[in-house]
Amino acid sequence: MERIVDYGNLKRAYERVKENGGSSGTDGMEVEELREWLGENINALRTALLCEQYKVEPVCMVEIPKPGGGKRVLGIPTVRDRMIQQAIQQELSCYYDPLFSESSYGFRPGRSAHQAILRAAEYVKEGKEWVVDIDLEKFFDKINHDRLMQRLSKGIGDKRLLRLIRAYLQSGMMHDGLV
Fold this sequence. Notes:
This protein has helices spanning 7-20, 31-50, 79-96, 113-125, 139-142, 145-155, 159-169; strands at residues 59-65, 71-76, 173-174. It is mainly alpha-helical. A 3-stranded mixed beta sheet has the order 2-1-3, with no helix packed on it.
């Protein structure tokens, strides 16, 4: 947790959230307001996270149209929660990213769908006939949280961080004022 709440890590996380923009979450705070809020509250935020007093907010449910018809449900976290999640991701990716397959491109730092397509084209030029693209429908809706937490606990020794990750998994979704 100390590395998660390190000022430098939080600053990088803030910059990333600012770059990504996006809608406000259930608390209504916009990305543009986060800097001022942090200026007044950064030490209290760090203390709350370290002492396990930070309260994870429910995500805001938003439906967006899918290209092939139907709707995709998204959960929009508050900008504070997005920043904390980004700070966690920045630290954990240093540990977990080297364990992933070189052929994996989704949600990886420094990798993109465009790079995956270029690599697939190289395989075809090398004479390979098959390229496999896997997109598991509603994967994150269906993943077993207990099993995920058990796997994470093998690499993460800090119980505070594990409890924070669990809180994010269980935060709930707000729709029409109900969680």
